[in-house]
Amino acid sequence: MLSVSVVPPTSGAAAGAMYELPLLAGHTSSSAQAVNDAGDVVGFSLDANENGYLVRWGADGSLTPLQAVQGGTGGQAVKIVDDGTVAGFTDAPDGVRHAARWSAAGVLTRLEEPPGYTRGEAQDINNSRVAVGQLSTESRTLPVRWGPDGRATALRLPPRALGGAATAINERGEIAGYVSVSGEKTRAVRWDTRGRVHDLGSLGGADSEPSAINDRGTVIGRATDTNGIWKAVRAPRGGTFEALPSQEPGARTVSANNTDVVVANVKDRSLRWSGTGTGVTELQPLRGTARTFVRGINDRGTSVGTSDPFAVTWDAQGTPTALPVPAGFDQADPVAINATGVVVGNVGSSRTWPVRWRAVVWR
Question: Which of 12, 150, 209, 227 is the most exposed place for a label (fewest CB within 10 A)?
Fold first, then answer.
């Protein structure tokens, strides 16, 4: 891996060093999508025609292709767990998407699609190798849980629900997702470890959606109020969604850690709420920049995101620290931070079109 350490001109000291992740032979760009706590990364390596091939980068910089179904390309790796197992979906040559799991060696396991279901997507996986996602027919999408053996179990729907998807699972096996109801409404739900489904409520509007469920069983996400305005919300185990305090209208992405600290993007501001939900801190931009966008937070309380085009981390007080970028690149997009503070993301240059992104790690 090539180590590069160039400080953005508008920042103070930069943190750590940046390493470019290798490409498959003949490829020209790459994209990182997720990282585990060991520092292993999953993402894409792309050829000159922008065909993407799923790959796994080891913490030592090694590169392993992930097998594709029937020789296809494309798909997405949504998560990599501690033993290197990857979950996501892969696209067959006919364009049909199939839920998949890969071993650390890149070996593909197709997750079960029961009779009548033609496509599927895994959206999350835990360290017990239990995955969740959805199965689809031509007219319906249903939430599903795949066990470690790859077998599918349809998740229960509440009354009047037409379909839905499971989007997150914690280490206890509790699941968060959403269901669709008549009138083009969506409602966030939680499935407990016995498979019972619980409506997480709303703020009086038509829609609510979860972003994640942490190991305490807290679900975080977004919901609309009576005026149709999206707000960042949190629901403890056994509770329903409540709006987080002191936020403007227009919440976008929402993330949380296992101590119930929440970060969210509200318009062009990034906010951080304490685990008790009472204190809110704005994540500050770097000097000379104006807009921030937070992508995630680890259990140490370090957040990661961008300040205009620069990659940054924030401490618990909202103070930013610039991450180094390579010479000749002016765009950075960090996507995740692990428990030890390793950040993964992508860098590119606006001087080339289309932008040729490169997957990188900051350590």
Answer: 227
